[in-house]
């Protein structure tokens, strides 16, 4: 009966029409998707081309002056190029996650931001208590840093303010989060280990188990912003000659000692990875699992670094 019903359905002109209509609709959707992809590419490319055109005109305008002052023209053209390249790089906003070891973590993240043309655009999730720190707290508040208390009801309005500026206002940004929510210490590592054992979760090596709620909320909001392109993962590592792995300089040392490497024997490294935001999961559960896997991989890299660092250089890595 199934075969007869199938033959009858195939012979029905209305059925054939339905199939052909479905094929036509699928083809139309595919063409529309392709057209939208091209439109997106054009939208992103046009500002680049316009910026390059402006640079070309400016560079050409100063070129005849090279007969009178070649060094002056060289310096002027260098400044024009630097301005254009810095502007273009600001298109690439990102969510940044990192492990947190010490105060000096900020210096290394800021150095990477400077290389990417985003130094002034960094916004860190910070504890609301930091508002009370003289000088620093005032500046954090004035810059619009997201100040959170880990209480969702209290933090919701603050996060809505930050996310609205990025999504609706189109603010270029690196929104940076230390996903462990606190600095690594041996005591906190033991507490994390106990929590993971109790809750049957994997414990990353050399790291605390990451807090997933903030990451999920950030990604789910900022993926709506067309200019937020990626999630950057920074794995921060320290070593001091004659000391322990992940032994970092104190805050006062970073402020008072010139040449932390040459004078105090500290070595620093940031291992970076870039994940296109379209490549990470869309569901909350998927994002939580993704961050957990990421932290396991970070721990494996840190253990590899711990074993190899005394005998070989770790090299350098920066986000694309």
From TrEMBL:
Acyltransferase is among the record's keywords: yes
Record has Membrane as a keyword: yes
UniProt-listed InterPro entries: Acyltransf_C (IPR032098), Plipid/glycerol_acylTrfase (IPR002123)
Residue ranges crossing the lipid bilayer per the database entry: 16-36, 48-68, 80-103, 124-144
Residue ranges of every copy of the Phospholipid/glycerol acyltransferase domain listed in the record: 94-216
Keyword line: Acyltransferase, Membrane, Transferase, Transmembrane, Transmembrane helix
SMART domains, sorted: PlsC (SM00563)
Assigned GO CC terms: endomembrane system
GO MF assignments: 1-acylglycerol-3-phosphate O-acyltransferase activity
Assigned protein family: Belongs to the 1-acyl-sn-glycerol-3-phosphate acyltransferase family.
Protein's name according to its UniProt entry: 1-acyl-sn-glycerol-3-phosphate acyltransferase
UniProt source species: Purpureocillium lavendulum
